[in-house]
Amino acid sequence: MFRRKCWYILLVSLLLISLSGNLVLIHLARQQYRAAQSVRLDPTSEKRFAKLNAELSLPEAGEKRVVFAGASRIDMWHRLPVVQGCQMVNRGQSNDTSAQLLLRLRRDVLDLKPDVVYLEIGNNDLKSIGALPDQEQKIADRLRANRAEIIKQLTDAKIHVIVSTIYPFGDISLKRRLFWSDRSLMVRDTINDEIRKLNQPNITFFDADSIFAENGRMKAQYQLDDFHLNNAGYEALNQAVEPLIRSLTQIKK
């Protein structure tokens, strides 16, 4: 009787674990489906920025415009650096890949006629390696090509570009491990090494790893979740970026 009761408890426990796992998978599938449909309906976030761009006030006399471009790490940068004589504009869009930023670059960055652009992009490209491991090289090469084209269009327009290294990834949660590969870490390191070697007019590279990285991952005190910064992270970022923008806008004609 006792043994039968133990088997019954074990079977019920396994059933509950299986049910919980299936519910998690359904939730993740629903999230992915919603994200995919959102991209299909508005692939370049036109609805998000159309009104903001139309209503953006002109810089005051002598004021420089600085645009922050990228994905969620930029989008969530709610308190941008404060530099006297500069108008700060956030055009980060969560979930953007480098390809999506390139598609909206004219409308959301170039047409704003900034003096300086802060660029951090590539996180979402690299995340996809876990879901598409057979396309790792293609994903990395496309990111390189898109980033190079973004930088070219900006510098051709006489805009100074602060090219940030791709911020480190944090500790990956169990639910994300279903679609994750540590190869993303290695490709990030390779691409960041390439960014550090950029040596072109109107380009300044910014090494975010010097603030955030510890053993190749995001330092715990700056990590909000798997991929994003917390408030302390943005405060540390502001402390590093503010003097850089100040020095560039002082010499910018």
Q: What does this entry look like structurally?
A:
It is a single chain. The chain is of the alpha/beta class. The chain is 51% helix and 13% strand. The protein has helices at residues 2-41, 46-55, 72-75, 98-108, 123-127, 136-156, 183-196, 209-212, 231-251, and strands at 64-70, 86-92, 116-120, 160-164, 203-206, 213-214, 217-218. A five-stranded parallel sheet has the order 2-1-3-4-5, sandwiched between helices. The model has no long low-confidence stretch (mean pLDDT 89).
Quick recap:
This protein has helices spanning 2-41, 46-55, 72-75, 98-108, 123-127, 136-156, 183-196, 209-212, 231-251; strands at 64-70, 86-92, 116-120, 160-164, 203-206, 213-214, 217-218.
**Amount of beta strand:** 5-15%
Number of domains: 2
The CATH architecture of the largest domain is 3-Layer(aba) Sandwich
Distance between the termini: 87 Å
CATH fold-level label of the largest domain = Rossmann fold
Quaternary structure classification: single chain
Rg over alpha carbons: 21 Å
Taking strands numbered 1, 2, ... along the chain, how are they ordered across the largest sheet? Answer: 2-1-3-4-5
Unreliable parts? none
Helix vs. strand class: alpha/beta
Taking all residues together, what is the mean pLDDT? Answer: 89
Main β sheet profile: 5 strands, parallel
The CATH homologous superfamily of the largest domain is named SGNH hydrolase
| Order of SSEs | HHEHEHEHHEHEHEEH
Taken from the alpha-carbon principal axes, the silhouette is elongated
